[in-house]
Amino acid sequence: MDLTRSAAEALDAADPLAGFRDRFAGVDDGLLYLDGNSLGRMPLETPAALARVAEQEWGRGLVGSWRSWIDVGTRVGDVIGTGVLGARPGEVLLSDSTTVDLYKLLVAAADARPGRDVLVCCADDFPTDRYVVAGVAAARGMAVREVPADVDEGLDPAVLYAALDERVTVVVLSAVAYRSGALADVAAVTSAARAAGALVVWDLSHAVGAVEVDLAANDVDLAVGCTYKYLNGGPGAPAFLFVRRELQEQLRQPIWGWFGQRDQFEMGPAYDPAPGIDRFAAGTPPVLAAAAVEVGARLVAEAGIGRLAAKGRAMSALLVALADEHLAPHGVALASPRDGARRGAHVTLAHPHAWQLTRALVDRGVVPDFRTPDRVRLGPAPLYTRFVDVWDAVDRFRALLQDGGWRAYPEERTRVT
Amino acid sequence: MDLTRSAAEALDAADPLAGFRDRFAGVDDGLLYLDGNSLGRMPLETPAALARVAEQEWGRGLVGSWRSWIDVGTRVGDVIGTGVLGARPGEVLLSDSTTVDLYKLLVAAADARPGRDVLVCCADDFPTDRYVVAGVAAARGMAVREVPADVDEGLDPAVLYAALDERVTVVVLSAVAYRSGALADVAAVTSAARAAGALVVWDLSHAVGAVEVDLAANDVDLAVGCTYKYLNGGPGAPAFLFVRRELQEQLRQPIWGWFGQRDQFEMGPAYDPAPGIDRFAAGTPPVLAAAAVEVGARLVAEAGIGRLAAKGRAMSALLVALADEHLAPHGVALASPRDGARRGAHVTLAHPHAWQLTRALVDRGVVPDFRTPDRVRLGPAPLYTRFVDVWDAVDRFRALLQDGGWRAYPEERTRVT
Questions:
Q1: Which domains does chain A carry?
Q2: Which residues does this entry mark as bearing N6-(pyridoxal phosphate)lysine (chains A, B) (predicted)?
């Protein structure tokens, strides 16, 4: 691989997605923003979409606008589902937070497999996933099998398969590991779990908009995910959940609310879950926030997940090669799978002083994020990050290691996201 | 009571809150908007607040803005709690939807009273309240006692008290009934339930911003509520929950997520709920939507709940008197408590053709809402509705009844909110 800056420039010149960069705010501010995997950039269209929903639909249309808002969860859900995730229409609902959606689907799945008493998750999965599993297990008197993962290489499928037996009811797993970026084999794990009589709830938070997920082709049953990362839906944007069409009527989620009710405005005496994906809704949908999600998801769908994933793989390959060349000599180790086919779109590096390095990089105009215990996570979002940004970021990282400027930063960690 | 239009104009001229009307969008559009109890009007400041959070905090500040966003749930929660509800700081959290918040607190309360197996709610309460109670009871093998209420006069406290015994763990009740507007005696019910060893979760959705709730003075333990009605937070705006300070550490909610975790960014292996109200959070807070809630809640706090409640009582008294005078002769009956001390800020009227009347009123520039089976609900929000609007609305209602124009509308109901 040609690791010169001009080679990176050439990749940008040939990038079919290059034009999308100009549709985001702040891209000319000189910042090398490599934290799109934590909070995606703001699409330039978003403020106008928010203003339209606020001023016209709410301010002028008032309560009458519910005629168009009533199905916002499924409308934006379909943009994500059919536009980005390879789902069929009516399989994805925008609703609640990833945490709440995971809770709903996990309980629904566990209820659908009575007599089984073990939940499986990954010991290195994102905290909310592990905590939700622990909470559901505690409430139901179930056991949790936390399958160990290599913190750099991700979960070994053989280790997971060994944990699947006739006691297992649900497996919760991230398609892309939040720390290492390790990519799971969604089809194989889903199939193995099904063969063992269990259901998998996939957390797509670090996958959606970054890699091909192909929910239908991979025969996925259940999934949840976040819209404020690669979907650029805004801070704390509502999450989504996916339930395969054939499973919908078999499942019931535990939070019985009026937006999950059949003939909702009859306000009938007993809860009777709506047909289809609506039954997985609980309360009133977040209309304002959904407008921002819709803008972000439509941009991703327009770019095309195939092209985005290909660019993501190319950028992370460049990042790994540059890190090997320029950062490894300074004691920075790759903490993601080396095999590009086993990675999502972000790359993680390890260094004993990762916290100080992260703070120093931010002050030098490179925004990665820190993850415990000693990780610097770099997420070049393919929709608006250039190859040359990756090159420049590694170059500044190299300079920082060479000049030792990070040593001036306190070792003690402060609260960050 | 002087029921002339000029008397209504005089009330407006003497209204200390009159100036707040000019801080809302659309108030000069000629519409008599009496559905602020369903969806409050948009404050004029809201679009700018949304734009600021989107363009500056998100677009420019990017992930670094989490330094100010991280406590958005408690910051806006305190605006509602201390500014509107008479709570102490750190007792209210903006989070999730009313449905999800009710679920969290109901399960937390039930877990805190082991050995008891009955949940109590009101048979005429809002659907989501009844459904959440039914769902939690079904999941836990508990029984539900649905206490009957007079659909017009509301719940008779004696009937409720008779349902309280040593089996009852939690009572769920609306402070203001969604259909009739009947106002519960929050202090008395809370005290009676406590004497029976039970906890009450109050639903404040139709009370917050409309009547004095005085959570601390009334010694309330638990409450949830909606911000898109009298708080004017926008369609589907996030809800709030209240947990009395002394109870917080005794309770655990069931959806264990990373925003409820102590030292969240340590991402530790086991869930350990944060001290204080944060433990009732689940996922990432809705930052964009919270900005709109903050604007609306600050306006209500600025106006003062005492003044708002007084104006609400005066407006609903006028509305009842005008309805008696001009609508009752046409077969429209009061379907709210006649005693103003037993009403919230909205008034409900009954007529066999309520659906057609509601549609016809909308087309004549009066916006009430329809509620099953035969109710027209009129909610003059005290923050931006004038006494003369109430007068004009009843006058148009009277004219409609006189000319029979509503008969041209189909009897069959279509989906509405």
A1: 5-43+304-408 (3.90.1150.10), 70-303 (3.40.640.10)
A2: 229
